Amino acid sequence: MSIHSGPKALTEYILYQSKHKANKRFIILLIQGFLAGMYISIGAIASLKLSASITIPGLGNFLGALAFPIGIIAIILMQAELFTSDCMVMVAVFSGRTRLRRIFKILLLILVSNLFGAAFTALLTKSSGIFNQAVIDLLVEKSLQKVYMPIGQLFASAIICNIIVCTGVCLAYSCKEEIAKIVVLWLSIAVFVISGTEHIVANMYYLFAALFFGANLTIKDILYNLAVSGIGNFIGGGIIVSGINYLLAYRDIEKANK
Question: How many Å apart are CA 107 and CA 33, to the nearest integer?
Fold first, then answer.
């Protein structure tokens, strides 16, 4: 199926992807979700190591933001399943192509498999000894900020996060050439990282890695952050980005169906 720009083409492509995901076997979704959790974690590892190694204020964060997008790029090009961008399959519900319960089952499976992939990579990080003390200190500092963030701030930050991420993925869907996909994803995801907003799958890695390194946080703290950021991410991508694109494309799509 060819991909072109504009809300109508984007919405049709997401509907196509929604049908494709719904027809995948359970084990395939599980494996692809696991891989996506690992890919995001790989980007987070590079980002943390770069950020911690540069002492010039602001430069470390900037270079870290440039390294992080490799995870999302791998997910798009290798066709893995990431909860945050997959929230856009809500278009299938808006258009009446499927039921909300079915979409929630798919998203829940992808979310759980993302968690397994991120937690597994966090465990490997601890066991491998690839982080020096400066990286560990940065990881713990970031993680404690996340679990102690007020609920309203966390929720709003997660909504903004997935608006940015899903907008970048939409831009990638609109590109015909892979090099163009890579460029727009790199820029978009770097913006997300620089913004410092809350991405549930990235947080899975940060928080479990911090836990394994002995940070003063609990499973309850982790669940708090993941629950609030997950709902916020769903609203940002599944309701706002996909909903607005569907509203813009609604009339053309309904005419085509008739």
Answer: 10
**By the 8 A CB rule, do 70 and 42 touch?**
yes
161 versus 2: the higher-pLDDT residue is: 161
Alpha helices in 54-132 (DSSP H): 59-67, 70-78, 83-86, 91-94, 100-128
Q: How far apart are CA 113 and CA 3, in angstroms?
A: 28
pTM of the model: 0.92
197 Cβ contact partners less than 8 Å away, ≥ 6 residues apart: 157, 158, 160, 161, 164
Could you tell me the CA-to-CA distances from 194 to 61, 161, 248 in Å, in that order?
A: 7, 11, 29
Using CB atoms within 10 Å of the CB of residue 169, give its burial: 0 to 12 exposed, 13 to 18 middle, 19+ buried: buried
User: Distance between CA 166 and CA 171 in Å, rounded?
Assistant: 8
pLDDT at position 2 is 46
The answer on pLDDT for 231 being more than 70 is: yes
pLDDT at 252: 64
**Which position has the token pair 């991420």?**
165
> pLDDT tens-digit profile of 38-79?
999 999 999 999 999 988 878 988 999 999 999 999 999 998
- Helix, strand counts (H, E) of the chain: 13, 0
How far is CA 242 from each of CA 99, 105, 220, rounded to the nearest angstrom? 16, 18, 31
CB 161 within 8 A of CB 230: no
Q: Among all chains, which residue has been given the structure tokens 């899975």?
A: 204
Query: Domain limits of the chain?
Result: 7-257
Q: Look at the chain and count its residues.
A: 258
Question: What is the topology classification, in CATH, of domain 7-257?
Answer: Glycerol uptake facilitator protein (1.20.1080)
